[in-house]
Protein 1
Amino acid sequence: MIVTDVDYEVYQWPRRVPIRNGLHTYQTSGLTVVKISTDEGVTGIGLGRDIRDAPEVGIAILNHFKQYVIGEDPFDTEKIWRKMWEPKLVGRRGITTRVISGIDLALWDIKGKVANRSVHKLLGGYADRVPVYVAGGYYEEGKGLKELAVEVEDSLSMGAKAVKMKVGGAPINEDVERVRVVRDTVGSDIKVMIDANCAYKYYEAIELAHKIEKYDIAWFEEPVFPDDYKGHQLISRATHIPVATGENEYTKYGFRDLINDRCAAIIQPDAQIMGGVTEFMKVAALAQSQDLPIAPHGNQQVHVQLVAAIPNGLTVEYYRGSTDPLWGEMFEDTLMIEDGYVSPSDKPGFGITLNEKALKQYKIN
Ligand SMILES: [Mg+2]
């Protein structure tokens, strides 16, 4: 079996209202769909992360990488990954690794379709269902404490037993009040996580952590810049709230340092960003060797398959309609929460069928 073509579709759509985290405001959402065809008629779909910061760069890299994939056996994921990553000037981090990820995900989709097994079974099935949490609690124009509480209640009504909220986009004492409101709203049995999206200096993160420790926080995500490994360590030592990070880390090499230096208690690789399934499984094993759990960042349809395949999978992140207006429409079968859990599809590959009709109008390439 050989790859005959690599094609892609880049989509970008507006959000209902701009949403803001600790550092950025997002007006749009997006998706890069990598489609890999083979001489045996099997097509792999790779759900790539959006490349909205520089779509022209992402598209150029996609075109450049075709030469490394076409003509290869799609089962040779290690060989193809290495061919894309090895050139010194491309592939190693940033948007090029996002592109490698999309291609690798499409190759694993092909493997699953040929084997007639879901990706989580192919990788070594571990669980039939995995815990999930709803990501939200963004800052929005006109969204006060009351609206925040309503959103969180709505997430619980979807079946969630854990919710994550943003911090770092307001003065510290204001965020302390937001965290208090969320804890009061959900009661004591629901997990609450906070995510600063790298907004703090390490000493500000410690100040916030000390002020909210009493609200029983399950983790403090990306308190400081992803490259500030020492800052992560200092925060980890200063608070009993577990530090979580990894959505802006790339490849086994970046995660090796994060894990070996004990920068975080919870490791958050995103297979759409850090190198695809091939690299995700290596990072999961690295974390397991130090008894650290994996709580991937990003797309639930992709990551439910990966968390269900590893023994140290902690939970899956879940985006909902309030953070992505196409949430219920871009796939034919939207992943639903049941009593705090999600279950991986048993369909071959990632089991993802795109709703081409809903997406069509947002295609930008
Ligand atoms: Mg995050």
Note: The pocket of magnesium ion is lined by residues 195, 197, 221-222, 247, 297 (CB under 6 Å).
Protein 2
Amino acid sequence: MTETARVMPAVELSGKQIPAASGWTTWPPSDKPQLVGSRCKSCGDYFFPKVGVCSNPACMGEDLDEVPLSRTGKLYTYAVNYYKPPAPYVPPDPFVPYATAIIELDREKMKVQGMVVSNCDFTQLKIGMDMETVLEPLYRDAEGNDVMVWKFRPA
Ligand SMILES: [Zn+2]
């Protein structure tokens, strides 16, 4: 495999953008998207995705705010997937390896998972580097909509 074969071109948007998971990110799309989570009013813990009851066993509070989470964080770990996952994953044709990452959000110090943007050279990923949240198509549906999901890229 050549160096360039690892990097998909940036995805071009052609259709109407719809969220892959409604309410999981700020919407409509912007160039500064954020994940949307919960913050417990009693203990201050953050959760993603949103929860109705605090998952802190010492708290179990039921009064939580819906809050946008930090756009930025540090790369905690990542993995490159060289095998095409089964459905419901909708692979590009031909399949191109992709990376998933866990990011520790700057303010919340909470770890969240997501894919790395498709045009990222995986060899440039370094544990601890600054990352930011973006929206990118996960796939194009049968109606031609770009189904958008959060991903991370080096900041
Ligand atoms: Zn709590």
Note: Residues 70-155 form one domain.
